[in-house]
Amino acid sequence: LQLSDEDACLNIMPLFHIHGLIACILASLCSGGKTICSPSFDAGSFFNILSKLKPSWYSAVPTMHQAILGDGDVNQNKNSSLRFIRSSSAALPPTIMSGLEALFGVPVIESYGMTEATHQMASNPLPPLERKPGSVGIAAGPEIAIFNDTGDRIEEGQTGEVCIRGINVTRGYENNPEANTGAFFADGWFRTGDQGYLDEEGYLFLTGRLKEMINRGGENIAPREIDEALLDHPDVNQAVGFAVPHESLGEDIAAAVILEAESKEDEASLHTFLIEKLADFKVPSRILILDAIPNGPTGKLQRIGLADKLADKLQITFEAPQTESENLVCSIIEEVLDRKPVGLADNFFYLGGDSLRAAQVINRINTKLSLSLPVVNLFHFPTCRQLAENLESVLKDQELDELAKAMEQLSEEERNQLLGEGPLSGDNQ
């Protein structure tokens, strides 16, 4: 990235995440440059900081880039101070990359990192060197090689597991000998769990995931945690959390469950149950209730590939909105996600929504109806039907509050006339 003491990085990443700690803070300090730390990420304030403090680069995850792109004005930002833009922690969709380059007029550099490598493993180089679409670049930190499942290194062009080795690679997981046994091949090669290949010029292309860990927009989530939370429900006999593709997060979470024979639970009630047990970003966007969960060839449950096996069940039948609230919710989600049609049974997050665009949905509802709904409502009520029902409940409560306040302003005589009754007492009060 040719960082120097003339560079200033705008850090919008959280500092509990190695992406922000290493790529934005320490890389800047080690190269003698500056770091500008925003108090939190907001696409609107991003452009104010960009204008006032004139950073030369910033690094972010794809969901952040997408929010910036949604708030940007091509005519205002092509002459910004940016020298380049960096993306890491999850796959960057090509449309976002091309949109950012059109918006700012600078190259977008896609990189590949993970905590076990002290963040960066590979990166595309700056022009005039080649940036290859679909590639996360050349080795930029540790050595990179591709191995087959028996631990043998394989040639360029062949697909296998991406492995890394170097002084910035972890030596193991603390107090977890079982994990360490399967984490390394011979000679210190760490197994990333990612599948890919190297081309003849050393550019790495990722093709899939071998480890069960779910990478939801840069947040690593152990699917076993999803299983255990679901199995705490007395009606759940079997539960398997698994990854499903997501257009902006890279991966999202789904779960398959088998219930007790007489259970009345459904997807919505199980979702409500999990909201109380898991952090919002760990709650599955879809919970499938099945009679049987597909097994692997050995009879064991396999998370890898489960999304493909259950693809038909993950599809949702379109249900048209009927009420005013349902039409409002569906139309706003259609606008924010830029997709039609959106029906009552559609789950905002499964359609491609994320936390940043959830804020856009709630802000538009609040503006339209003069409400102050919190963003968390969309996590608690993720389908259009659920959110519309929540909206109607909030509006009804608001009407009752307004009526009560209005009644308080009346004299006792006026209230009596309004109610058509004598002096208020007892139940009438």
Provide the fold topology.
Blueprint: E1 8-11, H1 18-30, E2 34-37, H2 43-53, E3 57-60, H3 62-71, H4 74-77, E4 84-87, H5 94-104, E5 108-114, E6 119-123, E7 138-139, E8 143-147, E9 160-165, H6 177-183, E10 190-198, E11 204-209, E12 214-216, E13 219-221, H7 223-231, E14 236-246, E15 250-259, H8 267-275, E16 286-289, H9 306-309, H10 311-314, H11 324-337, H12 355-369, H13 376-380, H14 384-409, H15 412-419
Parallel strand pairs: 1-2, 1-3, 3-4, 4-5, 15-16
Antiparallel strand pairs: 5-6, 6-7, 8-9, 9-10, 10-11, 12-13, 14-15
Helix pairs in contact: 2-3, 3-5, 11-12, 11-14
In short:
The protein is an alpha/beta fold and 429 residues long. It has 15 helices and 16 strands.
Write a structural description.
- The structure is a single chain.
- The protein has 429 residues and is an alpha/beta fold.
- 35% of the residues lie in helices and 20% in strands.
- The protein is built from 15 helices and 16 strands.
- The strands form four sheets. A seven-stranded mixed β-sheet has the order 2-1-3-4-5-6-7, with helices on both faces.
- A hairpin with a 4-residue loop joins β5 (108-114) and β6 (119-123).
- It is globular and about 90 Å long.
- 35% of the residues are buried.
- The mean pLDDT is 88.
Count all strands and give the number: 16
The radius of gyration computed from the alpha-carbon positions, rounded to a whole number of angstroms, is: 26 Å
**With helices defined by DSSP (H or I, 4 residues minimum), what is the helix count?**
15
Strand content: 15-25%
Which class do the helix and strand fractions yield?
alpha/beta
Read across the widest sheet, the strand sequence of neighbours is 2-1-3-4-5-6-7
Major β-sheet annotation = 7 strands, mixed
| Straight-line distance between termini | 73 Å
- Apparent shape: globular
Which whole number gives the mean pLDDT? 88
Q: Segments where pLDDT lies below 50 for 5+ residues?
A: none
The proportion of residues forming helix, as a percent range, comes to 25-40%
